[in-house]
Amino acid sequence: MLYYFIIFLPISSFLIVSFFARWIGRGGSIIITTGSVACSALLSIIAFYQIALCKTVQYIKFGHWFNIGALHIEWGFMFDSITVTMLIVVTVISTLVHFYSIEYMFNDPHLPRFMSYLSLFTFFMLALVTGENMVIMFLGWEGVGLASYLLINFWHTRIQANKSAIKAIVVNRIGDFGLGLAMMVLYHVFHTLDFAVIFALVPSVANENECISFLNIEFKTLNLIGILIFIGAVGKSAQLGLHTWLPDAMEGPTPVSALIHAATMVTAGVFVLVRFSPLLEYAPLALTVITIVGGLTAFFAATTGMLQNDMKRVIAYSTCSQLGYMVFACGMSSYSVGMFHLMNHAFFKALLFLGAGSVIHAMSDEQDMRKMGGLIKLLPFTYSVILVGSLSLMGFPFLTGFYSKDLILEISAVHFTVEGSFVYWLGTISAFFTAFYSIRLIHLSFISRSNASKIVIKNAHEPHIFMSIPLIILTIGSIFVGYIFKDAFVGLGTDFWNGSIFVLPEHSKILESEFIPPLIKLIPVIFSLIGATLSFILYDAYKSTLLEWNLTKRGLVAYRFFNKKWYFDVVYNYFIVNKVLKFGYNVTFKILDRGFIEYIGPFGAVIIIKDMIVKLSNMQSGYIYHYAIIMIIGIICIMAIITSIIMDIYCSYELIISVIFLLNIYLLLPILLHLKIIKE
To answer: Which pTM value belongs to this model?
Structure first.
């Protein structure tokens, strides 16, 4: 029952609040949703002890779902070390976000609806990480997409929120299509969608070395499956190409940003890569693609976040960059390190988003950092928590982010392949830019001269207890979690994962990373310190923006390039979105809606339907022989279909036509003659 409660408490609270919020009120909605998720978090801690620390695996069968031929899908849930680690991350962060939202959203008249959406999101994420088979996992996968749409579009009267929510769900559908294709190929190859059976059969499929043609290209079977799975991860985890939805998701309330970007939806793609480690280990081409795309994403997002002015967008691009680190760690078969960074990132990224929410709440919903400044004296507590989160993000020594981020770079340094060296230097340069925009955020918001209005400054205030407690807990986690779990998660010889992560011996580089020269280990730290120092020098107390420097034309081109996000949105809008909208307007709307349908509608369709109704009504004559002839004709048609199916197995097409024709004539003529006699 323990495991059932973990999964079904959030969905129960969603249903109760959705249907009965009018009677239980705002207070009741808050207590039910927050209490259920908090109970789920406590039970997850117990499950973590039973599964991860006691080295067991638990399978739960809830019931049958459907059977189609050889495909048998059950409501089954699997609890192993990967699952319980994700349960801790998801439920703890979700509980803190629920608690934080009580104060942040208290004045919103639709608070019960918001809290119910948070619980719905939590349930689907739990279903995703606990699913025993691909179908249950895909249910959670699609569910978090739906819940994210509802949360981003919570303030649905704002047009920008509508656009951002639609963009998020459409872009994610592209990645989901890839994951759906992966499910089809998996069933075609393994004849099942159960993880345990698939992973057991992977070595035999790898030995057969079969190929599948996809888009007229020959792929090895496991390479194709791995690439299709990664396409799904690209959408959810906002990797390069399908990343554009992530910054725009900032249009939702700040607690939504923390829930989506910190521990839940964006980490779903990384979780899927870790879950499929037994398959990806036999797909070298897929691993190469994953490594390169992850490195490019880390670099792209770090350079883009460097010159953004919206506080939440800066943190959003930092999320995109850190996801790149997790992905290329998985591409180098360091799945445990990727999971370790996922957990660490959840704490300091949730801290940054909730800290940013505290600033925005104090500044009367102002998000532009250029209109802030001087807040260090007004918001010292908020400054402290954002400073800790930013330092952990940039990998400052001995904070949580340092232990996982630098380990990823160390492993890439000892990979001794082209893609390994490529992502090592991209990740190291990205560390420079990460430190740059982290200090830039702190400087523009807290240290530089104030550019805010006097009214906003006068009303600025620190958060109260409901917002402060989650910030304190996340601050502690951002300092100590990495140190506490580093030996258990990624230490040499650790058995924490208990076989849930599979790595071929020749792909493991943890041991080699311990013996690289100290200078190589220090290079990312040196780059981070240089980036932080340079940012502080450029954005000193008398300069609030780079635009005060007299940039050359080339400098302005570079500035616009990074500020406009490498023009990805511009290119997509011009070559894809506008073309689709023009097609929809010129073809679907003008030709079909306003053309064919409207022309047929008022002039032709009414007349046609009226004539059909008159003719059909004439058949209701009340004569028995009229009804009898209709019944006989129906029977003859059914017999003709059955006969054609039977004869099609043994005879040619021409013979089938002849038999049906003779049968119809033989049956129909006597009946018609008999009815004619009765009528007369």
So the answer is: 0.83
